[in-house]
Design brief:
442 residues; alpha/beta; Aspartate Aminotransferase, domain 1; Aspartate Aminotransferase, domain 2; 2 domains; 4-stranded mixed β-sheet; 15% strand; globular; binds pyridoxal-5'-phosphate
Length: 442
Amino acid sequence: MNEITIPRPNDLDAFWMPFSDNKYFKGTPRLLARAEGMHYFTPEGREVLDGTAGLWCCNAGHGRREITEAIQKQAAILDFAPTFQLGHPIAFEAAARVADLTPDGLDRVFFTNSGSESADTALKIALAYQKAIGQAQRVRLVGRERGYHGVGFGGMSVGGIGPNRKQFGAMLPYVDHLSATHLPDRNAFSKGQPEHGAFLAEEVEKLVALHGDTIAAVMVEPVAGSTGVLVPPVGYLEKLRELCSKYGILLIFDEVITGFGRIGNYFGSERLGVTPDIITMAKGLTNAAVPMGAVAVKNEVHDAIVTGVAGGIEFFHGYTYSGHPLASAAAIAAMEIHVREDLPGRVRAIEPYWEEAAHSLRAAPGVIDIRNHGLIAGIELQSTAGKPGDRAMRIFRRCFDDGLLVRVTGDIVALSPPLIIEKSHVDRIVTTLGDAIHKEAA
Ligand SMILES: Cc1ncc(COP(=O)(O)O)c(C=O)c1O
């Protein structure tokens, strides 16, 4: 291994950390300085097993040489060039590669820089499409309670997470929500897709009865990750698809987490057997080595917007860095790894072992539900009275100190390791987490 110098931060004040307890962190910093394969390393060189692929994003594992070299090479060839009224070859190549992996018929790709931008872009595409086909009255957007679509005003409004909204006053107008699919009384400890809950998709009909033909799109995560691993009940997504088609509503799947192999196919829609009209993605697209997101769109939706106008700009939207050369290079290299190493196949191969391992924590103190799908698992704990989230946060910190990175949301521990995980890593995750759950039982 090469000797590298790890900078030791001597001032933590300037960086206002996102979604963080800044005061706690800065009093007790936990830093990650280096990463390789399945592991992070602290500045002191202590190994931390990555149970979360960073933030659900380093799906091919850390420090992939192919990706690093592709970025370095591209930086030397073309650091940046605009994609407004101009183009550079590698952005077109990256888009074509994405289209190769998305479900058939979703072959048009709009680049963004994040999942949040992908969500807002998808919502704008849906509105522009409805207008283009003479349905300008369709201005309403429907999300789902406990949905997470990032932090832009569109994604935040259509998302269904109260704490993410409460500081910010007005949201987008004309937004409604379906109920969350979480039915703990009936589905607790389900393995894979839970049995009960398809009926919740029928709420689309209730919203149509209420709002008439003013709904442009329904956006959901196929498997909701950020609010604690909510797996769609059997038949739920099929019903959503059926009703959206019936009522002229576009169906958007936010695949920022489920994209790129996470649940055993390149996209979750393929694994779950339901094809939406629009797919958002980010994270695993570049293995998180350079920020990039994308929106894959059904050809008809694209064509209605693009070929439907005589000339000039067809879609008044885009980012300076849409299709950035370094991100495009990283995405191509990451997608090549996915295909060459059949990462979705690896997920399917290890999934039964993963499922059994996750559910082996059922008897641990305070565990009230375990959910899993693909290479995702959620372990829900009874909240400590009067202190929601406290127990899971203590478990998170103990795990980190014991050499395992997990993610917590409320009192749910979410696991989503890199897809290159081996059985021995799975064992270590379960042992370390189980131990932490026992020690933080109170
Ligand atoms: C489903 C989903 N959509 C959107 C986002 C937002 O992505 P980003 O943080 O890259 O903006 C996330 C992030 O976790 C996500 O899980």
